Amino acid sequence: MLNTEYNLLDCPVRDQIVACYSWSKTCGISLAIIWLSVAHTSFAQMIEFQHVFKSFGRGRNILADVNFRIGPGEFIFVSGPSGAGKSTLLKLVGGLEPPSRGGVTVNGHRIDRLAARARPYLRRTVGLILQDAHLLFDRNAIDNVLLPLAVIGLDRATAGARARAAMEKVGLRGKEDLNPVEMSGGEQQRLAIARAIVGRPAILIADEPTANLDDTSARHIMDVFRDFNQVGVTTLIASHDTRLMARYAQRTLHLDAGRFNDIPGVPE
Ligand SMILES: Nc1ncnc2c1ncn2[C@@H]1O[C@H](COP(=O)(O)OP(=O)(O)OP(=O)(O)O)[C@@H](O)[C@H]1O
Ligand SMILES: [Mg+2]
Question: Which residues contact 13 (CB under 8 A, 6 or more apart)?
Answer without folding.
Answer: 41, 42, 72, 73, 202, 231, 232, 233
